[in-house]
Amino acid sequence: MSTDVNIPNAYTITLAGGADLDLDNVRIKEIPVIRLETAIKEIPKVTMDLGLDNVRIKELPKIDADIGIKPTRVHMPMHTQMCVSILGINLLKLSLCGENMMITEPYVPRRTERCE
């Protein structure tokens, strides 16, 4: 037998036509770590002397939170009817028309409302 068989070490593969290598399902599982190194070893310190060594709050500002309805007079139209009827026939009908008035005023507890 002869031992003069030449087996090539490098191969060239050319894909042409309808070869499908299923590259649609390739997913990236991990991104390599990127390290940036700078030449600055220490961040310079910036200091400012403003001369504010002894600062104290002597008085807090007053906050006026007056929430509510200011004293107001409200006028509301009124039309009230009271009727007594049997089988849809009106026997007695009382009708009051006019204007109601509602006055809002600051709350001052009365003698009976005070908790003692």
Could you characterize what this model shows?
With 116 residues, the protein is mostly beta strands. It has a domain at 70-105. The chain is built from no helices and 2 strands. It has strands at 72-86, 89-104. A two-stranded antiparallel sheet has the order 1-2. Strand 1 and strand 2 (89-104) form a beta hairpin.
Question: What order do the helices and strands come in, and which of them pair?
Answer:
Blueprint: E1 72-86, E2 89-104
Antiparallel strand pairs: 1-2
Strand order of the largest sheet: 1-2
Strand content: 25-35%
Quote the average pLDDT.
77
Distance linking N and C termini? 125 Å
- Gyration radius, rounded: 47 Å
Keywords:
two-stranded antiparallel ribbon
What is shown here, in short?
The protein is mainly beta and 116 residues long. It is built from no helices and two strands.
